[in-house]
Amino acid sequence: MTEAVSFQTRARTIDHLGREQIADVPTAVSELWKNAYDAYARTVSLHIYSADPPTAAIYDDGTGMSRSAFVDKWLVVGTESKVDDRAVSADQRQGLPERPRQGQKGIGRLSVAALGSVVLVVSKQADARFIACLVDWRLFENPYIFLHDIKLPVVEFDRPEELEGLVENLRTALRENLTGSDDDPARRDRLVDAWVQFDELDQGRTPGNLTSARIRAALAARVPYEAHLADWPVWTGDRPSGTALVMTELNSALTAWTLEGEDATSEEAGSIRDSLVRTLTGFSDPYAPAGGSVMDYGVVVHQAGPPTTPVSREEGYGIDFLKSLDQYIEGHVDETGIFRGTVRAFGKDLGEVELVPAQAPPTTGRDRIGPFDIAIGTFEGERQASVLDPDVYREVVKRAETHSGLSIYRDGLRVMPYGRPENDFFKIEERRQMHAGREFWASRRMFGRIAITRADNPNLRDKAGREGLIDNSASRAIQLLVKDILRTTARRYFGSDSTYRKELLPGILADNEAAAAKSKKARSQQLANFRKALRSQTAALQAAFSTVATIVQDLDAAVNANDADGVWSLAPRIDEAVSIRADLRLPPKPRNLGNFEEQYRGYRDLYSSVANEVEELRTRWTEENERLNPRPPVDVARSHLGRNQKAVTDRLSGWKRAISALLKSESVRIDAQIDQDMKAFYKDAAPLLVDVEAGRTSLRTAIEEMDELRDRLTSEFSEVYEPYLRALGQLSVGVDLEGAFAYAGARESTLERRLEQIQGLAQIGISVEILSHELGTLDRRLATSLSDLAKSAPPTPALGEAQRAGSELVERLRFLSRIQVSGGDERQTLSGEDIVVYLKKFFGPAIEERGIDLSATLAFRSARFMEFPSRIFPVFINIVNNSLYWLAGRPVKEILLDAVDGKLLIGDTGPGVDKDDQGNLFELFFTRRIRGRGVGLYLCRQTLAAGGHRIEYVPDGPLRRLPGANFAITLRNGFDG
């Protein structure tokens, strides 16, 4: 007898199709965003909340789901909608053009299990009720439960405020999947038996960590769903429809965004965050033509302070960005594999090209690949070989660190995992290892995409886990085609074997070297001019100081004698002092003055004093003249106008004479130079006529050499006269070339200095890493040994001192390494009193020996706030340590701590910070201390910034407490007093 039977499905099938299939968290997020795209969402976003418990949510404003749609489609695996190619009705598209469907298997929604074990699904269709469903995906991990025995609770409601009262009912109904109910005794017995077996299995694998216990704990937790849903525009009524997935029991790749302190700065957490940013930033094709059905997307992280958005759809990096790079190819590959498009090599457009593949692709059946588009741009590895502006080149290099790679996009959305650094689908790095120069292309220096469509390339299908295309003849064919295009363009246009590199690169290198040399010469000349002015004007400035002092004395005498005529007679001398002040102003200051820095600062301070004295003198003369002079005001004003007009006219006349003399001299020089250059061509070309006439050279050769000579001379003369004309043109419209050179020189000097600093920081980082690695172990060994010694030997003063010294040593090393030792570091309530006690304990002997008064106001001592001690104490240690250094030799040695308006203030009676140094004070490696390293204040700023606090130098104003160096620390949430 033949019996008909059917498959029996275990609940674990859902786990296999969902969580276990998805490659990683970025891929899971991408799948859910694609579902939003299929639902005609205009926006979709991933929100990560560092709440208790940590929560994540995906919100979209697509068509949403009614109860029937949710039950009949979302809860049905492999729905027919994914294989049904019928057009979506206009009313479901929400006014958007039709979108190619991204989903293929009807299981993408199950990837939510890879993000969080518990999810609350909330959805709404326009003009329909809200629906909600609570799911714990760990129910589907039990291999002993049949799928039909798991029941998911679904509710409908009308207003957002109703959800809070329904969540507990959802938890109760979902919890029933662990115990069953008396309504169905057979199902109850199956569930109880299944969980008993699974608990036994769990106990053997992970003792004390039963899945059933974790499910119960999660369902007992209180999640602020309503607060999180406030970020969903459908919940607030701003959009009529959409779906929200609110998840808890998160994957560690999402909780990495909620970490704080040192956990947040660990290498593992940083790597996880970078992977999400790199993958999702390119979710949609940035190189597609403008227009079309574009969906906005983003990742929003909610921690203390305003939310941050590490991922969003970027503008400004589309096809025009690729075209601006050193090398660029763009075109269309037809079904026969022929590439037709444009090529740009070393900044030069080479026009339309056609590349025929070495091997034609399959064109029939399941092996066939259809047409696709390709666009790739790249930049030279060495700055001197690039046609890009230096500032642009630096930005491109910086972007390549996080956004480089060759991606694949299907119908405008990214196909994972292509474009990631670890993926080498097109064998770019493999070929590069054979011969980097010839193969040219490098994943880390290229940007671009392969654009396919589902309609033209139905055989290019994703693997079930979305970790790439299924390995079939079609995927291998497109791989071979792209590899062939990259190989051909590298060898023909870009690589070391190409004629274009050999012909064009020397000119680029020469141009960049010439530009660098000219820039260096200009900076050198500007520095020389500045030093010359500084030397030549110093004596005149000192004389001006004496002159102004004499005028002040004469004005005092005239005022004391009530001598109106005497006051009036001082007017020409005061006008002369004003003119001298203008004459003695220095040109723009270069960034690096070397051994002239001290001389410059002396000049600057004296000039500032003279300028202030002149201004005060002029103001006082005006006031006293009005008081004493009986002349009619209009006569005084007329006389003053005449004097000022004469001063302006004299100055302009002087400039006119100087400029005219310089232009005349320059005109004579240019005329002579051009007359000489005019003879250069004839001088070198005339011998060719003699050679042709004598038969030693053919006519063709002579003409070619003449043309080559003309081109060479024209190029050489262009490099001399065109920049000259451009400079004159800039002068004619008022461009300050000297100021521009000063700015450019300062910027280049800054960048070069930062490179040196980074190299130095790398060495410090190695030392700190070794210190961090060993400190915890050494601390424990030291503490254990001293403790054992104390038990086995009678207490002595020497032993007590050793214990104290060991503790202080660890405290100081802890400050340097910024790690947690001796039990870790927790956020706690700190007070100003705690800081004072800590500082006096840390610096006690030094303060006492040097006779320094370290005091704190009552406002500081009573200030209270929440923070990690390791984030606050090292900052005060560093600033007070600097004060100890600069107070040496001062007549008054005082350090004062105060607090006002959410700010902690620190001041001392040292020499203070020179105003030219104040802007650099928190830069890495900036220091004026002998043998100082310039790391402390930089670390202070970075450490405080990690907690949302800010530190600044206070040069003057109401926050300045003492006449020396003053700092203000602004706490993120202020403090309680």
Overview features:
977 residues, alpha+beta, Heat Shock Protein 90, Ribosomal Protein S5, domain 2, 4 domains, 8-stranded mixed beta sheet, 7-stranded mixed beta sheet, 14% strand, Sensor histidine kinase
Describe this structure in words.
The chain has about 1000 residues and is an alpha+beta fold. It folds into 4 domains: about 10-180 and about 215-310, Heat Shock Protein 90; about 320-495, Ribosomal Protein S5, domain 2, CATH 3.30.230; about 505-630; about 825-970, 2-Layer Sandwich (Heat Shock Protein 90). The strands form 4 sheets. Strands 5-4-3-6-2-1-7-8 form an 8-stranded mixed sheet, sandwiched between helices. Helix 16 runs parallel beside helix 19 and helix 18 (about 570-585) runs parallel beside helix 20 (about 635-695). It is globular. The chain starts with 11 loop residues before the first helix and ends in a 7-residue tail after the last strand. One of its GO terms (molecular function) is kinase activity. Keywords: Kinase, Transferase. This is Sensor histidine kinase.
